[in-house]
Amino acid sequence: MEEIIQRAIQRKKIALEILNEIDLIEKWGEVGEAHLVGATAYNLMVNHDIDIETFCNIPCPENVFKVLGHLAAHRGVVEIKFHNYMNSPLNGLYSKLTYRYPDNTEGTLWNVDMWLFPSNHRGPLSRDLVGFMNKVLTDRSRKSILDIKEHLVRLGLNYPSVFIYRAVLVDGIEGIHHFLDWMNNQDLNETFKLETLTVKESGADHDRK
Q1: Separation CA 11–CA 141 (nearest Å)
Q2: Residue 140 and residue 138: Cα distance in Å, rounded?
Q3: Sites in the chain below the pLDDT cut of 70
């Protein structure tokens, strides 16, 4: 297996260890329907970031703080943030956890982004991408995405991951230079549902993972 894919697998292993250590999916499951989303769910991890989306009928800050109160008891917790976006187009409650793992002075800092949305939320959601991404990704496209992501980290550049996925899966972009040229023609304010776009074939069907 390619080293770049092995690195992503190892990062996901650590991410799942963190989630298990602090019972995070279980705690959000007490609030609503919790989903592990983003790069962790797609096996495309480069940054130390974990994403969770939870859905319930009526999101309220009180339920969020029940979860955050549970998290505060763990000694690995470095910082917790909360922002109410219910009266904005985002229409959700956002919280962020910074966690040191292992929980000692030598541990690495991980970020956990957590959203609580109403069940009838409209607009792009990472939850809706999980099945789609895991269906269409191949070894070749996975390697291309990870390669672009790792180069962006080294260059100190940051773009929304969904644009990287679109570049590789829809437009067949490979390599950091082609990606940066492609980004020059993109509108970062554009919103789109990746799962509704036509995916470009990349490699044989047998290498889908």
Answers
A1: 18
A2: 5
A3: 1, 201-209
The number of C-alpha atoms within 13 Å of 50 and in the hemisphere containing its C-beta is: 24
- CA dist 112 and 75 (Å) reads 16
Contacts 24+ apart (CB under 8 A), 125-129: 125/53, 126/35, 126/37, 126/38, 126/41, 126/51, 126/53, 127/35, 127/37, 127/53, 127/55, 128/193, 128/195, 129/37, 129/42, 129/162, 129/194, 129/195
Cis bond upstream, residue 102 (ω within 30): yes
Residue 47, CB-side half-sphere exposure with 13 Å CA sphere = 20
What is the model's pLDDT at position 205? Answer: 42
Q: Phi and psi at residue 191, in whole multiples of 5°?
A: -110, 135
Dihedral pair phi/psi, residue 84, rounded to 5°: -95, 110
- 163 half-sphere exposure, CB direction, 13 A CA radius: 19
Mention every residue, 6+ apart, whose C-beta is less than 8 A from residue 120: none
* Torsion-angle region of 76 (φ positive above 0: left; ψ -120 to 50: alpha; else: beta): alpha
Q: What is the pLDDT of residues 125-144, one digit of tens each?
A: 999 999 999 999 999 999 99
Q: How many CB atoms lie within 10 A of CB 49?
A: 17
Cβ partners under 8 Å of residue 140, min gap 6? 202, 203, 207
State residue 201's pLDDT score.
63
